[in-house]
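Hi there. Long-time user, first ticket. I'm pasting a complex I've been working with (about 599 residues overall). I'd like to know whether the download I got is complete or cut off, because the file seemed smaller than I expected. Thanks.
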Amino acid sequence: MNKSPDTQRMEKIVSLCKRRGFIFQSSEIYGGLNGVWDYGPLGVELKRNLKNYWWRVMVHERDDIVGMDGSILTHPAVLKASGHVDTFTDPMVDCRLTQRRFRADQVPGQSGTIYKFDQARDAIPPESAFEILAINWAKELVPAGESVSRKDSIRLALLVSDHRKFNLPTPKVDPSSVFKLFIEFADKMSAQPDISKDDVENFRKAYVSGPAASGDSIRLLQRKGEDKATILKRADAFYQLRNILIPMLSPSTEEVTDSRDFSPENGAELTPPRPFNLMFRTSMGATETEDSIAYLRPETAQAIFVQFKNILEVSRKKLPFGIAQIGKAFRNEINPRNFTFRSREFEQMELEYFCRAEEGMKLLDYWLGERLKFYENIGIGRDGLHVKTVSDEERAFYSKGTYDIEFDFPFGRQELEGVAYRTDYDLLQHQKASGKSLDYFDEETKQRFVPHVVEPSAGVDRAVLALICEAYSEDEAPDEKGKMETRIVLRFHPRMAPIKCAVFPLLKNKEHLVAKAKEIVDLLRPHMNVFYDESGAIGRRYRRQDEIGTPFGVTVDFETLGEKDADLRDTVTLRDRDSMKQERVLVKDLPGILVSRIT
Ligand code: ATP
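Hi, the file is complete. Here it is re-exported in full:
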């Protein structure tokens, strides 16, 4: 079952990430850059641990995979051949009221009453009628030098009415009472001997039977809990943007269920979907011409395909073999959201595993299994992971099989990684477009052919977010005085934890304790990332480390110095973050114990 979104949990996670220096919004002091994030001191450690582990498992521990690091700036021909220039698009829709942009396939179905406004006429006279009013009838009543606009129509009509003693009441804000004012005004004017009949007739014609000030139509959805007044206010806003000052509205209504035609924010009609290319384009060199175009890569994979032949030659690998890469990718996402989940700049960890056509489907399943194991080994339990077999309709046309590995984020079940059998599509495309052979010579069968490929493609940022979401927990722990309090703890797998061990002298004003603690820091530092903290009560120091997921805490006390019990000299307490249990261990054993528990 897909779990329902847990907004509160997500808010706590986002706030912790900022408070403790995992993730900040990019350019925050300038109001932030939407969809772009900076990793702080702890975030960068977590991210590095993840990438290093991926590299270790995918490259260092295997004979059949080599790495590469391709450029971000990409030749347009590469992305033309791969299909990205023409088809790397998302369907985009805009709210007709606020111009907010959404991805059409992410708009939720909504039900309610549709109010359809076909047009709106303005209760304020149109320009042609306004001129008659202002120039012929009210000119001498407007103080010299004061400029008047259509917006002043009511004031002018009331000035004339006062002057000629028509006794027309001041209209209320509603459009029909404004309309009534001008109709009555025209009637009264027609009885004025000094006013030409033509003038009055022209005013009346322009005002009453003149064209509606806007023929633009809009549909607005009244959702559960919204009243009609809200809808009319939105319609007002729509027509006011079209220069109708006081719109007179006469909507028709109809019921609808599960429609994706309306903005999830305000129920206003969305434009029909249009394709929107997600690539960031830039220009190389001093002059900007068609020939200077380059793209920021939208995925790391293409560099691997383009360098396939070079790497095959230098690595002298035999099929099946893979090329792995970790690096930045850029997509101008229409609607970046859910914290770092959908960003415009992100990192990918991609493997292109080349093989013979007949091995493709089997290797697809093999890599799915390997990738699931990977997530379990970094502390994401199998329960929170889900494998979606991507259907024929949803799959890229060249793929013979694709799995999405999904994770239960607090905002819903979403893709963490795609594992796709891409056939020989990419290499064939580049071979055709470049005119260079990208084939493989099989020495046993003496055949030449273009290999097929299976691609596990993971997002670094999504995996980091999944690690934080999976690790976040709250439990109860005693404070200094033994009173139970809520403890926030990130239960990272020790392998992923940004800091592996914190070292505390019991008291910061005892020189020998401090010296010993620093000695222990030096002892551990070659093996892991350690953190020294001497400030505050020991319980508080533990809590600070719990909150950032440090799995182990070492406290140096008077026993360590042998001051209380000679047998305990050179021992420390080693505290476990999750169980909060403490054990006494010899200082010299610490590196061994910790390294074995971390890995
Ligand atoms: P989605 O459908 O969520 O847009 P996708 O299917 O387009 O993703 P792929 O092209 O398969 O994604 O990219 C592989 C991986 O790269 C994804 O599984 C994800 O982890 C990561 N990724 C893709 N787009 C983004 C993004 N905008 N922000 C962060 N990570 C991303």
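A couple of notes from our side: The longest strand covers residues 412-423. The chain has a mean pLDDT of 94.
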